[in-house]
């Protein structure tokens, strides 16, 4: 419903929205069963009826119709992507690339956050995704996303200038009750698809820890090598990111 509200404000109410899988593959608990921002929906027109059980098949058919053209962006738990790769093992070879907002890769960041949220919510799915060979397999972890941050007052000042961001600001106000700022985790991953120079990348091999309950889901770097299958962001240009981000919304307003 949040996505539908955004599509309506953008003048694109017919963009298809397919709810994904609601629970992790193996874990018996959910870390975030509800979306607190939903309370703002009363102020934004939105659809309430969506096709259930169709998300994986929609992804599969779309990628098969456009081989080598699609960069798949994953900005939440990896459950749907892991199921997609398991249901149709040919899909990874048909992708142009995969970009994840997932993981924490530096020792310093892992001291502060041993397991990043998206990996924590479904570590077994994350493990499947990282074990899957893909032509371009990129991750932007907390090491980098934590550098693109904006305090609440500045968010209000910037977002109010752009009609497309008005509902986002409304959703953010729920967040600001407990936190003084927003970190642009997922938007950075999205921007990197269209401007890969917003980050600097290191080739490596990533493994997801599945043995120790306390570190379940931790992303571990096994080796750094120019031929390794994964690329992880190790630096970001925050000014370049914010310029690209706000330019897109200004163009569409």
Account of the 3D structure:
With 253 residues, the protein is α/β, with parallel strands linked by helices. 40% of the residues lie in helices and 17% in strands. It has one domain: Ribonucleoside hydrolase-like (Inosine-uridine Nucleoside N-ribohydrolase, Chain A, Alpha-Beta Complex). It has a 6-stranded mixed sheet. Strands 4-5 form a two-stranded antiparallel sheet. Helix 2 (55-65) packs across helix 3, helix 3 (79-87) crosses helix 7 and helix 9 packs antiparallel against helix 10 (166-176). It starts with a helix and ends with a helix. The model has no long low-confidence stretch (mean pLDDT 95).
Q: How are the secondary structure elements laid out?
A:
Blueprint: H1 2-9, H2 55-65, E1 71-74, H3 79-87, H4 91-94, E2 97-101, H5 107-112, H6 117-121, H7 123-131, E3 137-140, H8 142-145, E4 149-151, H9 152-159, H10 166-176, E5 181-183, H11 185-194, E6 199-208, E7 219-224, E8 230-236, H12 238-252
Parallel strand pairs: 1-2, 2-3, 3-8
Antiparallel strand pairs: 4-5, 6-7, 6-8
Helix pairs in contact: 2-3, 3-7, 9-10
Domain Inosine/uridine-preferring nucleoside hydrolase: 4-243
Keywords: Glycosidase, Hydrolase
Protein name: Inosine/uridine-preferring nucleoside hydrolase domain-containing protein
